[in-house]
Specification:
The chain is mostly helical. The chain is built from 13 helices and six strands. The chain folds into three domains: about 70 residues, no CATH class; about 80 residues, no CATH class; about 140 residues, no CATH class. The strands form three sheets. The protein has a two-stranded antiparallel ribbon with strand order 1-2. The chain has a two-stranded antiparallel ribbon with strand order 3-4. It has a two-stranded antiparallel sheet with strand order 5-6. It comes from Dokdonella immobilis.
Amino acid sequence: MNSIFENRRTNYKSARGRVRWWLLLVLAALAAVGVVAGLAWRDYRRFADAPLQLEQARTIDYVRGTPFRDIVRQLRREHISDGSPFYWKLLSREMNVASRLQAGEYALQPGLTPRGLIAMMAEGRVVQHHFTIVDGWTFRQLRLALASESGLQQSLPGLDDAAIAARLDIADGKPEGWFLPETYAWVKGDSDMLVLERAHEAMKKALDRLWPLRDPQVPLASPYEALILASIIEKETGVGDERARIAGVFARRLRIGIRLQTDPTVVYGLGEQYDGNIRRRHLETDTPYNTYTRDGLPPTPIALPGLAAIEAALHPAAGNALYFVALGDGSGRHEFSASLEEHNRAVARYLNRSRQR
């Protein structure tokens, strides 16, 4: 009997030893897993909050429909990030934005972290480009500037002015003057037509706002006539405090029936025939835009007027001047006269200064 009990006791001790050995083995394995998991988590945290490897600013383009993993591959290929696709995916899930990453062009600045980049893409903080329409540009110059704006999708080449006007619902197919000089933001993927739409909408809103506030004595029958006169004022002077005075001259001429006789309209009517010098034969050659040969305003604006020129057209300065001529001293300013005799003397002074210069 004693030997049986001893055998059982031995077997029990042996079984308990084996259990203890397996338990220690499991605990060791769990500890190893814990260490590995801790190291992996530490590496993940390092990845998420360490700056990307950027020596200078650059951009990445996340094209709509492209899997985000392709962007990750690009970052790894260009040695901007060493994070694995799994880390990037885990980070987007941790931030709860995995389904909200937006396509677009993004600016990467030195110091940006993966967490910062994911937040930027979730909020859609894409690169904003800017396009400035300059006061006094013609529509032709605007089209050329848009065509040279890299990054804008080009839809205007192949369309004539009338087709563009039709798309923008501009009456009579004449787009000249209908775009407000201002700076417009656009993002990669936007089109040149979208910029035109914004500028056209801005001009319509400006005229809708300013026309009801006009001087009731202004000799203009419509907002479009105001746009035409403003474009002439814009081309006549770049000196701010002269705009209202020049508008006053034109308003008085319109009111009493004297022709405007303004050179910029003649130049516009000449189109590509103009070589930089206006000659007497140009003043005597009749075109729809020759205000020396035709009464009243030309049929369309001759440029894109800014808000200041529109304000001047609607609020001309009081006075009795009917003429003006450049001083010719390089200042861009003008001398104003109430009579033809005074004006002729002012012209003589201008010619004398021009010869001296």
